């Protein structure tokens, strides 16, 4: 019978390889796995990262054989403390890891023309594999999404297919979650939404990068993306599109040199 | 063609074919079946045959009314505040605070009738309350009255706190173009620590006209 292994964050490739070799079934505990309301989670403060509250909700209510939770620089300090809580409540092994993998596998999905929701679904699914992402032709970006995969994927449907993915999500696909240089990269020529989960330490980096970006919008949201967040993103994308249409000559093209800054500019 | 800004408390209407001024109707007095051809605001999707996002309407309205390339437009409504920062006539930043700014305009109006305050005669206070939202700020008023402040003085400090919040939310600029019903409240306007240019209540309607112009549907130029 297949072992069911929960993962939180991105455990090192060596761990993923071991699980794959023993033909274990990986369950990503960062994503909602159960049709349970968030208020069923009572072990963490209510004002806490919705992703980690989801982790607790999943872990406490699923039949798992063990859990790997990454607590290194590729995840966050909050995960370290959640690991302690899980270790105290669960009877199965809860194993902490510190992923420092530095071999880049590339990020073709992040630069593809897939719908943004499918991009992020593929990127998060890719964590369960030791293989690089399948090849996708690079598209020309007209918008950017910087950040972690959101707790509420529905907000991704607001973006055009030509949205490129930056930030930690790009690090996920590259299988280098602790690569702060790659995480901090964004394309100044592309209007970009800098997203972070409310109460996540990455809100500081997201806000900082948005302030420095010539066309950046900082957005954070908790469990679900409310109408205010949606309207803000909708307005930002539409107004950015209008501005690009009105003054196409103002856009500056970047050069595809294969570095993290390898996106073509928005038109 | 009927344009409408369906605000939480008031609906602003403008009929394109007529050379009339926009009208203001309390939203609760609208017939449940009332519909507009093009709408923005809180109830736009339900009451408009076509709807435009409020922030987009605000940004477009500001572009039509403000001649400065680099400036800030702040809209203070009944239940939320929004701002647009323009740079080179383009939108460089924006914000929509529907949580901590909740009910602020509504609360100011509520206090006016509850305490029978005439905002046109109230002096701008030198200090104010630290108000993060309308509901939480109310307890400051009650506390101040209990400890001896006059009701008018307490309400004025509350209004000052709300204005300062909105100012900081908009990025603490040197000058603000103000949109919304609170333009008509001299106490609120006077509490901003910067130059304030009130644009009135019809900026979003102006944005709807801008939307029509973008789509090539506006047949005659607006003044």
Automatic annotation (TrEMBL), chain A:
Residues 246-267 are annotated as: Disordered. It comes from the Bacteria. This is Uncharacterized protein.
From TrEMBL, chain B:
Gene3D superfamilies: 3.30.420.40. InterPro entries: ATPase_NBD. It comes from the Bacteria. SUPFAM superfamilies: Actin-like ATPase domain. This is ATPase. It comes from Candidatus Electrothrix marina.
